[in-house]
Amino acid sequence: MRKTIKLKAIDFFCSAGGVSCGFRKAGINVLGGIDIDKKCKKTYEKNIKAKFLHADVSVLKKEKLIKYFNITQNQDDLLFVGCSPCQYYSNIKTDKTKSSKTRLLLADFQEFVDYYRPGYVFIENVPGLDKKNGSPLADFKEFLTDKGYFFSDGVLNAKHYGVPQNRRRYILIASRINRVITLPKPDKENIKTVKDAIGDKKIFIPIKAGTIDKTHFIHTSSALSSINLKRIKLTPKNGGGRISWARIKGLQLDCYQDHNGHTDVYGRMFWDKPSPTITTRFDSLSNGRYGHPDQDRAISLREGATLQSFPLSYKFYSKDKNTTAKMIGNAVPPKLACRIAKSILNGE
Hints:
Elements: E1 8-12, H1 18-26, E2 29-35, H2 41-48, E3 51-54, H3 64-68, E4 78-82, H4 96-99, H5 105-116, E5 120-125, H6 137-146, E6 150-157, E7 168-175, H7 194-198, H8 226-233, H9 301-307, H10 321-330, H11 334-346
Parallel strand pairs: 1-2, 1-4, 2-3, 4-5
Antiparallel strand pairs: 5-7, 6-7
Helix pairs in contact: 1-11
């Protein structure tokens, strides 16, 4: 193991600060973040204690970062984070017309890497990024090699890195300083579960669907229609699914009458397993297995943030529930980011 290094980082596409949170925990000096969504600004600045640059990376002038973050070109101790939104290449079925604008954000990030030549680079994205035709990833990896970077990449599952969530993501870390750089080793023995994360009823007190928590703990759960309340009450606790009420007249959805797939929809989480992937719609019962294991509701905003491995003290500054859910769901889990940062710093 090589001697621990000291790094400072700029977090492109930072959103609410998942990567920055994990990197700070690992000992990296986070100079600040950049994001097109101004709604993330207060959450990022208050929690990360760093600058937030509200900007569209695709049109941002590269030299602006020199004064704003007090950096220079060719800094060996500088790390650029580029976890760009890329739903276009997701394995999950999404509206490609809406997500097509995200296709080239990695290429935009590449231009900043080319201009500043930081010592280190980290990107995280959907697993499909490394397989889909037309993905900019192949060009990015060729670019890194041409510019003298050495890299390690692959698809990691957050559940192997202390996150109580089944979340597969493509990860790449690169360095032009060290010829050998490796992804952190997975721990497949000590898997954190939903119960480990949100099972303490003294912290996550039982609540009803529709509860609004105006404190920063945001133990807020979406309201349910009368029919959805009937559905979840008939869904067995601890992992039950919609198959339980499939034959009850008026409860089964028309789209599932002759369809056996998407069994997670309207389902409950299992106490003794990691949660499913926390998306931007995790607070909605109809968007996946987001039902609480034994309470008749979808998981709360704070429960989703905890399953993403945000600290309980992390505050999300938004009065809009959907905006908060989006910030949480879009984040890189801080504990995964922390493990990656430690691997870069210590050469694990």
